[in-house]
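Weekly sync, protein design subgroup
Attendees: M.S., D.O., the rotation student, P.L. (late)

Item 1: inverse folding check
M.S. brought a backbone from last month's batch and wanted to see whether the design step gives back something sensible before we order anything. D.O. pointed out we never logged the input encoding, so this time it goes straight into the notes. Structure tokens as presented (144 positions):
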């Protein structure tokens, strides 16, 4: 099976534990847009040794595309808005899954959308604006 075909067969897993989010966000950001930041987990190149090395489980599965979405209440006051943004993050990532390196990513909302411009907490215009910006974000790191 060709590497392109195996990359397409992988599912996008979601990060669930706060320690996973922290590990990915500890790395520097790899892409930014006016409202979002994308963090990518990078495996350390140096070898780890010691008595506890064998007992320490790997944080992320090798060859698995994983994604976490962080939408703070500070920037999206309504739960409806936070959920809309998270759904768009996961949807756009799923559309790019064949073009992303198989590692862990976190997309973080870094500033709020203007409430004067987007009156409704969940509207089609907000949905399209979020999706367009997320597409730009993932285009910056997509492998062609």
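Designed sequence read out in the meeting:
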């Amino acid at each position: 099976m060709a590497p392109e075909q195996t990359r397409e067969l992988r599912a996008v897993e979601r990060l669930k534990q706060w320690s996973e989010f922290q590990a990915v966000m500890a790395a520097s950001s790899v892409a930014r847009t006016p409202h979002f930041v994308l963090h990518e987990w990078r495996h350390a190149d140096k070898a780890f040794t010691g008595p506890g090395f064998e007992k320490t489980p790997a944080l992320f599965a090798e060859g698995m595309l994983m994604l976490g979405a962080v939408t703070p209440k500070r920037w999206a006051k309504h739960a409806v808005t936070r959920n809309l943004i998270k759904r768009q993050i996961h949807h756009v990532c799923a559309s790019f899954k064949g073009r992303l390196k198989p590692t862990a990513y976190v997309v973080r909302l870094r500033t709020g959308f203007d409430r004067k411009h987007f009156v409704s907490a969940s509207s089609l215009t907000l949905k399209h604006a979020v999706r367009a910006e997320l597409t730009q974000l993932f285009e910056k790191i997509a492998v062609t």
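Discussion: The mean pLDDT is 85. Helices lie at 3-9, 18-26, 79-95, 124-141.
Action: P.L. to compare against the previous round before Friday.
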